[in-house]
Structures are given as structure tokens and as C-alpha cells.
Amino acid sequence: MVIAKISKFIVVCVALLMIPTVIRFVSEPSSLSALWVMIGAAIVYRVNQIAVYVNDGWVVIRNFFKTTHVPVWEAEVELGEQEGGLVVSDAGGPLDEGGHTLYIRRQWHGDTVHVGVAPRYGKEAERIRLDLEAEIRKARAAA
Fold first, then answer.
1. What is the pTM for the complete model shown?
2. Which one-letter DSSP state was computed for residue 81?
3. Mean pLDDT, the chain, as a whole number?
4. What are the tens digits of pLDDT across the range 108-131?
5. DSSP string covering 84-123, please?
């Protein structure tokens, strides 16, 4: 089950950043500009794949550079150190508490894997953490 996937807004923003490359290819076609368009398309494709999900006994974390498969029996959801609240400060309101980076701890390897799709602040970060913990428990019970 997919817990979180990258926002389509982010994917569209990355794709829009590739417009100058496409314009250059159309206006002055060359093998080098064609290569840049292909690299840009690969970047947009990979950004679109960023996600975290649980399936068939595995927690799969797809970040931009690496996809990591962690067995559900080994996976533990962990929050990183609290970060400062100045980034999304609302003058002492509910958002001014600082954020946490979400990690999956691999117990047997003794390391952690960053969940890149999870935001550090807000309700969506909490939802992803809770849903991920629940899906890991379900997968353990099903195995």
C-alpha cells in the first residue's frame, strides 16, 4: 500500500524548470541539446517515482538517488532530532513547534534510511508516520 507519494505540484514544477532545455532543443537542434532533454526527462521521471510504501513483507523507500527495500520485521519508524520552528513560524501557534525528519531504522543493519517524501512539518508528516507504523504492523501480522 502506498503511504505517500511526491506531490504532482512538485513534479510539474520540476518539469517546468526543463522548459528552457526543450526550447533550446527546438530552436537549435543538436545532439548535445537532445542529450540535455533526455537527462531532463529522466530527472522528471525519477522525481515522479519518489514514494514510500509497504508491500509483500517489505517497506520500500524511493528517494531520488536510491530505492531501499527493508523487511517489515526489521523496519522501525523513527523521528530525527527536532528542528527549529522558525521555518514555518506562525508566532507561537500550533505550527511553531519545529519539525522532525522521518527515518526507517534497519535494526539488523544498525542504520537508518531517510524517507524523502515525508515533510518535516505539519499534519501530513504525522499522517505519514502513523500510516507507515500501521501498515508495518499489518504486514507483520499477515506474514
1. 0.80
2. P
3. 87
4. 888 899 998 988 777 888 889 999
5. PSSTT--SSSTTTT----EEEEETTTTEEEE-TTS-SSSH
CB 112 within 8 A of CB 105: yes
Residues 6 or more apart whose CB falls under 8 angstroms from that of 128 comprise 3, 4, 52, 102, 115, 117, 118, 119
Contact criterion met (CB below 8 Å) for 61 and 77: no
Rounded distance between C-alpha atoms, residue 9 and residue 65, angstroms: 20
Per-residue CA distances from 37 to 76, 114, 139 (Å): 40, 29, 41
Q: Phi, psi (5° rounding) for residue 66? A: -150, 140
Angle at 121 between CA 90 and CA 45, to 5 degrees: 130
pLDDT by residue (tens digit) across 49-82? 999 999 988 999 999 999 999 999 999 988 876 6
Sign of CA dihedral 84, 60, 58, 3: positive
Cell of 43: 530527472
Question: Would the pLDDT of 46 be above 90?
Answer: yes
In this structure, how many other beta carbons lie within 10 angstroms of the beta carbon of residue 123?
10
Classify 136 as helix, strand or coil: helix
Question: What's phi and psi for 130, nearest 5 deg?
Answer: -65, -45
